[in-house]
TrEMBL record:
One of its GO terms (molecular function) is 5'-nucleotidase activity. Its EC number is 3.1.3.-. It comes from the Bacteria. This is Nucleotidase. Belongs to the 5'(3')-deoxyribonucleotidase family. The keyword Hydrolase applies. The gene is yqfW. The active site is at residues 12, 14. Keywords: Hydrolase. InterPro entries: 5'(3')-deoxyribonucleotidase, 5_3-deoxyribonucleotidase-like, HAD-like_sf, HAD_sf, Nucleotidase_putative. GO terms for biological process: deoxyribonucleotide catabolic process.
């Protein structure tokens, strides 16, 4: 890694780089439901779909590849990430399991999404990975992760607004509604570090 990277940005994949609603049609199809994305008011979809955690894990085990391969890009995430690539170190830290590395990298290639590191940790606890990579900023959609990362690391976290992460936020966690807003906030919060 060249030492000229300005920020090390930790980036969640699902619900952040991919559209947060992409899982709903697949789960509806599998479980015979007709829920809308707006109905998913908690992160644990097992509760939303009234199935057990074990049933959800089994479903994800069987459908993860299809889900990850077919997910659409979240807004202009690909454009913003391409813009950042030459200036910042992009480290994707995801709860996906490492066995999904191939489908993840193929998806990145298909949408021309650049990366410096892809860390598939197989867990929602991203703190040790964020520490390992020395992230200066994190992009996330899961409320619990955003709160933990901002408090433990004293870094800014951008939390993508979803039906399942509504709560009051501490000062270092910023609710964002689009990738355009993310790009703008990075320039506002790190002005000296983002000017060319």
């Amino acid at each position: 890694m060249k030492p000229d990277k300005i920020l090390t940005i930790g980036i969640d994949i699902d619900g952040t780089v991919t559209s947060p609603s992409s899982i709903v049609p697949l789960m509806n199809e599998s479980f015979g439901r007709d829920l809308r994305y707006e109905d998913c008011v908690e992160y644990n979809l097992a509760n939303v779909y009234q199935i057990t955690d074990a049933e959800f894990e089994m479903w994800l085990d069987q459908n993860g590849e299809r889900l990850y391969d077919g997910a659409p890009v979240h807004g202009i995430a690909d454009q913003v990430l391409r813009d950042w690539f030459t200036s910042h170190k992009l480290v994707y830290i995801s709860a996906r399991e490492d066995r999904h590395r191939d489908v993840t990298l193929q998806w990145f290639a298909r949408y021309n999404i650049p990366h410096h590191e892809v860390d598939l940790i197989g867990s929602h606890d991203k703190l040790s990975a964020a520490r390992k990579w020395g992230v200066d900023l994190f992009l996330e959609d899961r409320l619990e992760n955003a709160l933990q990362l901002s408090e433990a690391l004293q870094i800014h976290v951008f939390l993508f607004d979803t039906p399942y992460n509504q709560a009051s936020l501490p000062p270092l966690v910023h609710r964002v509604t689009s990738w355009e807003e993310v790009a703008q906030k990075v320039n506002e919060l790190f002005p000296a570090k983002t000017s060319v």
